[in-house]
Specification:
The chain is α+β, with helices and mostly antiparallel strands. It has helices at about 1-10, 15-35, 85-90; strands at about 45-50, 55-60, 95-100, 105-110.
Length: about 120
């Protein structure tokens, strides 16, 4: 649902289909990580703001958290998991992960928007 809402908002302001699809991927990965890995949490929050030609997104959970060393290594080509933070880093201009055991996780990312001449685009 979050993916569709953000995509619709980006479409309404004239963001290109490619940029919207990249956002759909990173929002899905961030929310999917919150659902899959936030042990002990029964919900997460997602906020998105479009301002000054960029979109800022934050996904916050109150799960068990984890020790994050700031690295987002590429997954092995045959891996079926472990690609979420890597894709977020790859497809956005800035990504920050804040997490610590017992305090949940926050994944924030920013992407400059690419606009089309046709807002329905």
């Amino acid at each position: 649902m979050a993916r569709a809402v953000i995509s619709a908002a980006l479409s309404a302001v004239g963001v290109t289909p490619v940029c919207r699809e990249q956002f759909a991927i990173v929002v899905s990965e961030a929310c999917g990580n919150a659902v899959a890995h936030a042990d002990g949490a029964d919900a997460y929050t997602l906020t998105a703001n479009i301002v000054d030609g960029r979109c800022d997104v934050k996904v916050v959970d109150q799960g068990a958290g984890f020790v994050h060393n700031g690295q987002t290594a590429a997954p092995r080509p045959t891996a079926v998991s472990g690609r979420g933070l890597y894709l977020i880093t790859l497809l956005t201009d800035q990504a920050i992960v804040t997490s610590s055991p017992g305090h949940g996780t926050t994944v924030s990312f920013t992407k400059r928007l690419e606009f089309t001449a046709n807002p329905a685009g």
